[in-house]
Amino acid sequence: MFNLAGKVALVTGGNGGIGLGMARGLARAGAVVVIAGRNAEKSREAAHALRAQGARADAIEADVTDEGEVERLFAQVGERHGALHILVNNAGTTVRKPAHEMSLDEWRHVMDVNLTSAFLCCRSAHGWLRRQGGKVINIGSMMSIFGAPYAPSYGASKGGIVQFTRSIATAWAADGIQANAVLPGWIDTDLTRGAREQVAGLNERVLARTPAGRWGAPDDLAGIAVFLASPASDFVTGTAIPVDGGYSIT
Question: Structure pTM?
Fold first, then answer.
């Protein structure tokens, strides 16, 4: 039910943090994992690490905010692997400023990386996925649910991810494609380490509110990735699933 042998999975931003944690899970379940990112060296290193663990992994350099590069990315996946069954839209960034201090360029950058990239990748993936049915996993955030004074563009983009996921879930159901969003809680990554440095008291507040009593690790996202990529979730679509140690229920 959770076997991904013979499946090809593309993970954007899969060379670190949550994306790499998901990539490791997909690889352990048997998928061929293609890591896409702007940092070619980091992506190659991540793919090499997966191969060293016995996985089949590849890396392709791409800026997923650029329409032409996205089209080339999917063409390369097709040329190298002949199929695509699973798309994980994980590329993400943030600018920590209140709305009244944020420039238009900063706003657009966050929206492009977090939301527009998912649209571009889904559009390019659709033709591949509908050939045999497929899975889309879009990465949202706790900020899809909650507000934060320092995250207007990030929160807007991640709220948009949830609604975009629901839209394609309804549009593509007839093609045998399931689309779901994952809402990570406070996960220990380079991005959130920056938040702890910039936002006073954040670490203490997260620990106090999270019933699990700890920050998450990237590998805590591996299981949900395998579930949503596998036949086990064939009747699950349009959902937004928190993976947050209980943060969102307190």
Answer: 0.96
